[in-house]
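step 4 of 6: structure.
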Amino acid sequence: MSVDHNNTAIEAPAQPRRRLPLSLGGMVGATIVAFWVVVAIIGPYIAPHDAGALLDDDLFGHMRWKFPLGSDYLGRDVLSRILVGARYSIGVATVATFLAVLMGGSLGMLAAVSRGPVDMTLSRLFDALISIPSKMSALVLIAALGSSIPVLIATVAGIFTPGVFRIWRGLAINVNALDFVEVARARGESTAYLIREEILPNISGPVLTDFGLRFMFAVLLLSSLSFVGLGVQPPDADWGSLVRENIDGLADGAPAVIMPAIAIATLTVGVNLLVDNLPRRWSSTVEH
Amino acid sequence: MAPLVKVDRLCVTARDERGNNRAIVKDVSFEVQRGEVVALIGESGSGKTTIALSLMGHTRSGIKIAGGSITFDGQSLLDMRSRDLSIVRGRDIAYVPQCAAASFNPAHPLLRQVIESSQIHRVMSAAEAEAKAIALFRELALPNPDHIGQRYSHQVSGGQIQRLLAAMALVTDPKLVIFDEPTTALDVTTQIEVLRVFKTAIKKRGTTAVYVSHDLAVVAQMADRIIVLRDGIIREVASTGRILTQPRNDYTKILLAAAKPRVRAATNGIRKETSVPPVLKVMNVVAGHGAVDERGIPAVPLLRDVGFSIKAGSTLGVIGESGSGKSTLARVIAGLLPATRGEVLLNGTKLPRNAAHRTRDQLRRIQIVFQIADTALNPARSIGRILGRPLEFYNGLVGDKRRRCVAELLDMVHLPAAVADLFPSELSGGQKQRVNLARALAAEPSLILCDEVTSGLDTVVRAAILDLLAKLQRDLGVAYLFISHDLSTVKAVCDEVMVLYAGQRMEYGSRGALHQRPRHPYSDLLISSVPELRQGWLDGISEMMPKETSAAIAGVAGGETCRFFERCAVRIQGRCDVEGIPVRLLSKGAEIRCQRTEQELIELFTP
Amino acid sequence: MNALLVRLLVSRIAIAILTLLFVSVAVFLGTEMLPGDVAQAVYGQNATPDAVEGLRRALHLDQPAYLRYLLWLGRLLTGDPGNSLVNNLPIAELVATRLPNSLMLASVTIVVCVPMSLILGISSAIWQDSLYDRTVSLATMSLVSVPELVIATLAVIMFAVNLRWFPALSYSAGLLSLNQIFQLFALPVFTLSCVLIAQIMRTTRAAVIDCLRSSYVETAVLKGARPMRIVLNHAVPNAIGPIANAVALSVSHLLGGAVIVETIFNFPGLGRLLVDAVATRDMPLIQACVIIYCAAYLFLVALADIAGMLSNPRLRH
């Protein structure tokens, strides 16, 4: 027994838990994302002008004190329109991504834990759905249902659900194959317990990363749709619509067309920077 | 003459995930004389592989040589530019790596890779190199030496890959060969073949070699001199004979003691209590994957007609090599992989085959402990919560009561109560395995299925876990099904032993009986393949043992034929591969399944 | 082993065909979900019951859905998807004038991108973590996360407005000189290339680095192989599968991107036709365009899988 105690004492590499470190790129990304989220929430209240009011006689006006980001093709204030538009660009993408994760994620974990016919049916179904390119599905659905905010949310959520399902199922299957899940299963635990206690806490990191990337793709898809005139409809306008309606200013390099484009770019690059720099396996260290 | 290799005050550091540099090799100095085989022995984390790689001027990512010098054949390796280093590597120093199959590029045929170093260094023409490689294949007893080189790494077995790697190292006639745990991943019966050809090749050439291993018994066969390492520090350097007989350092003594089998079993032999039903009785179980036919045989059977019983408070050892179905057996008993045929009885009551259909009390009575301690604990939950769950699930314990119970459990497995607040990642391998045991004990089971519970652990930690298992059995009267590929471990804890091969029960009897001849030919091969802790064992073992062979099974007519047929030294062509295998009761009390009679076996295996 | 490979290939192609059938059903159902009736929609406010009824019959709207699907599928397969609802021109003709332009755009982009992204990907894997690698990685990461419309906008401002190399958004029908063709394609190709190069380069780099971490590369290092040999001889052959896969997948994404880019640059391709059809709810035209895009997409994805299978030595030998 002396060996035994001896040994236990020697081989204790107690490592204190600590908070995850974010690299410089990650911090920059997080800051940009946080900035735009705040803007999406308070944007309309801090807008200097009424976003719909025709204020400037000079169409495609340049940047000056009264209109910090210039004026658009009708003489409206570009800054105010971007501040108000943030809500559409970020809000619709967030809600749609969230819905997709809710549906795809829960079905994915269910498929992984149930195995057998449930898994096969769900996997076949989503594999078939994933084989339609997302922009095509979006165009067909919008052509059929017309474009409105609920249709956009449902469309994007529907398009992303199969992808989310695939990722969540894959992650859950990896965890499900580990011995501690087998131990719980041999103990007689229910499927709900296995999902909640054994699987979910161990995939939270990668799943969050996936959420970030999908949010970014949602922003890209929505702004592309708006840009071709099939997204958010006037009088509302997201950033994609802003680029579209001011496209005539492109020949003159008007800020009205550059600024919304830069807004989109900073948001998506910010999200990608943040996601790219997340620690590889932070799920197990963050969870308490 | 100057030594071939001189390592002087070598220090190596590794960068951990927090970016701190930690010393993993501290002030290590040694020499390797020409023509000498020096072993670096130590457990995981001892720095043995790091030292071996730095002899080639190579470090893995995150690792840095922080100080000291290495002189090889008069050149200072650590001062060389990378271009000059690559001239030495492969030509003057060759490396035989551990992870065998992964060490071959899957995209190229084997021969091209075996001769690659000779082509890089332009020491001979491609045709010469190929001829030399084929001669080496022949010398290393590879089957079909002329054509095996056209194959790809996924087309040859583990034992063959290891020999191909040796050929790859020897093709340039290097001055020094480094063997890094070359047989660790192999089954014991394959290991012995590989060791034998390696030893012959080394002897014939008078090769200077550094042999890295964690296994003293293997090293005892290969090395002239042994360097014992622990935590990056040299503990003892001496000739092999002296280390084995007169160890001076305390750690060397512990290593030696741990490597020698010590019987810990609670009972010796089988207790005759016929009135009480055995705690577990398994009858004619068949299990596997894929579609099941009308006879209950699955498309890919992993267990073929296995039966045995375990008495209360005793231990049944299940021994077999990879692919023998031993882990499947534990999963079938636990109901994780439902049997397709046969019955599992707990205290005389039939258990539903699927765990989902068993009652909570039935589930409680059988607990399972897995091989890899790391993956058996949920990394996102504290130890307290992991241990508390079965208490709550089976006994409804909550709050303070549960906390007290967790502390008791931890005490039972010799861990301090404070461990309850830690997470699995903060524990060492041995500690994790203790927590795994404690979780099984929390259910107060009558049977614990131990699936290779000590395989991932270093020798010393393994001995401690075995002691703990024995103590718990004495105190609590729990029965074990102890699955292992390691004969000495099974010997140490088991009352009865069952030998599995390819899902068939080959031999079943008491521990004592397994050590007496006659035995099943496979048991015999298995037992005589385990290296013994004495010099010269490898040279002394009988040549009776069969080579790796591959004869196709002629045809299957009625009943299960012997799966060991292809490798059996005493097989009867036309009978073993055609007829069902009879079960024979030997006079020593064990059952075997073999076409050979007891008398035949006695005659065949008498030297 | 080769029999296995053939079986895998055949089943992969069969799956692609089945999936295309599934997609056609989905597209048909999707476009049939239109609230109201196509006939009603065509005549809009001035619909008389007789006229609507007549059109309904002409469009087979009085038939059950599965029959209409089979009719539609049959016409599609014979190359006659019917007429546009908006201008009554044969859809086959509309597609025939636009498809070559789109194919041209895609091919030029692929020819520009693939070699460039492979060179970038492999070189940054070789000099992993160097300044060069980090710069390339940051640049491609930004490009991947920016929508085509932003790249297009910035490209126009830079090359057309500031540098005046190209006209911004013009396309004149009629005969084109070589110079005009170059000007027509330059900006759309540039925009598509940015995204495509970024995607392929990132996957290539990751695949090569993954191979560089393997045991057989360490073995090669210890045989004395120099870095160039290690990358070209040991890492790249094993990365071909993932890389081929990435190329095919990225090219299939190019199809979706092309829809946007064609719209931005007023490029007379299939994508622009599709977007216009969606805006005017020209259902037969939408169906035809979407099926073409989906077929191309499925073809490329199947090609990616097949490339992966063919490059796997376990299947080849």
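step 5 of 6: annotate
 - Chain C has a mean pLDDT of 80.
 - The domain at 94-316 of chain C is CATH 1.10.3720.10 (MetI-like fold).
step 6 of 6: archive
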